[in-house]
Amino acid sequence: MNFLEERILRDGIVKEGNVLKVDSFLNHQMDVDLLDEMGREFYRRFNDRPITKVLTIEASGIAIACSVARCFHVPVLFAKKSKSVNIDGDMYVAEVESFTHKCKNQVIVSKRFITSEDHILIIDDFLANGCALQGLISIAESAGAVVEGIGITVEKGFQIGGRVIRNLGYRLESLAIVESMDATTGTVNFKSQ
Ligand code: 5GP
Q: Model confidence over 123-151: pLDDT tens digits?
């Protein structure tokens, strides 16, 4: 069992609706030592790629992305969630359905900060159905950038996102893959990797 799986078993809370709450160390209060350990682990897994930028989505992905980017010595770019339909042409836009909030957001990235010269590592906290990742991939590819890899903190392996993204041919690495979880007993089982 790795450091993150141990922490999830200790402090994660399983909620109804297939939601794993990790707000005591990742999504609200943040354990920065744990974030730095994640950063080093993603660096170990992806440092064979010529990463020029780490791309994530606000808000929870930002802290993890910063720890990763510190190891690569590259900038972090985060897609902003925008309620506005009135977006000017200097933005890449993707529509993302929120798994936790059940609403649709347009996410935007300025064209100034992502180009065809970029080799992107996408980072996010959770992977469920893959909507957030598909939005980030579409933004990176609209800019002509190369998606070198995708790093996820917690993949919920019983939801379709991981399969969809891997079937599209992307290199996807998850620090923990939840195979099953149960809100009544509070148990979480991980896929051995
Ligand atoms: P997807 O787009 O893959 O369906 O969902 C991924 C996004 O939804 C992540 O960016 C994350 O913010 C949120 N999310 C999905 N499942 C969970 C979960 O079980 N717990 C938490 N805390 N966030 C989740």
A: 999 999 999 999 999 999 999 999 999 99
Task: Specify the 3-state DSSP secondary structure of 60.
Answer: helix
Which residue has a Cα nearest atom 8 of ligand 1? Answer: 99
* Alpha-carbon gap, residue 144 to 146, rounded angstroms: 7
What atom in ligand 1 is closest to the CA of residue 20? 19
The secondary structure of 136-186 as a DSSP string is: HHHHHHHTT-EEEEEEEEEEETTSTHHHHHHHTT--EEEEEEEEEE-TTT-
> Topology of 3-178 in CATH?
Rossmann fold (3.40.50)
SS3 of 17, please? coil
CA 111 / ligand 1 centre spacing (Å): 26
* Chain Cα centroid distance, residue 15: 20
